[in-house]
Design a protein that fits this description.
The chain contains 8 helices and 5 strands; from the N terminus they run βαβααβαβααβαα. The chain has about 190 residues and is an alpha/beta fold. The protein has a single domain, classed as Rossmann fold. Strands 2-3-1-4-5 form a 5-stranded parallel beta sheet, with helices on both faces. α1 crosses α7 and α5 runs antiparallel to α6. It is globular and about 45 Å long.
Length: about 190
């Protein structure tokens, strides 16, 4: 069976990954499943609902479940792609272990690794506008792209989601020669 192609979008919260994924689904010649890793966290039951935020018990529960949930989501990417399903992965690789796990699981698949960039000031403006938790993008900013290797990079502050999607679609023509995950595997081992 032919393995599915993987367009792996990595960027901070509010960088524009989801709107790029939706634009890609509209312009790609084949169907692609939008695989948002955040959606796995949305499957958790709501916690205490305390007006002061999460309780200590909620935080402990999240800290114990998060690595398992993220690892399961990573395994799912490989499972879907091994079934021949094309994927647009929407992820925030803020933990070096997450990057290493994805590289090790997916290095033998056709992966186009896409860096989704946006200046910090714009990310913070988007956070305020979208009523997101303030400070998330700032915390992620230096972590998400620390590895520095991509097959293609887009900047959502200077290009529309459709323009970014077209740039990615053009790079997808050479997905079988894309090698960012191969380079990262050598670097990480």
């Amino acid at each position: 069976m032919t393995k599915g192609n993987i367009i792996f979008l990595n960027g901070t919260s509010s960088s524009g990954k989801t709107v790029i994924a939706k634009a890609l689904q509209q312009i790609l010649d084949e169907p692609y499943l939008h695989y948002a890793v955040d959606s796995f966290l949305d499957m958790l039951p709501s916690m205490s609902g305390s007006p002061d935020g999460f309780s200590e018990e909620d935080v402990e529960t999240l800290e114990s479940l998060l690595p398992k949930i993220i690892s399961g989501a990573h395994q799912g990417i490989a499972t879907f792609a091994s079934e021949g399903i094309n994927l647009i992965v929407d992820h925030v690789l803020q933990d070096p272990h997450w990057l290493k796990e994805c590289v090790n699981l997916l290095v033998d698949f056709p992966v186009l690794f896409v860096g989704v960039h946006c200046p910090l000031e714009e990310l913070e403006r988007r956070e305020r506008e979208r009523a997101r938790e303030q400070g998330t993008a700032r915390w992620q900013f230096d972590r998400v792209h620390a590895h520095g290797i991509y097959d293609v990079e887009v900047d959502t502050s200077s290009r529309s989601p459709t323009d970014c999607a077209l740039q990615i679609k053009n790079a997808l023509k050479d997905v079988h020669s894309a090698d960012a995950f191969g380079q990262l595997r050598q670097q990480l081992t």
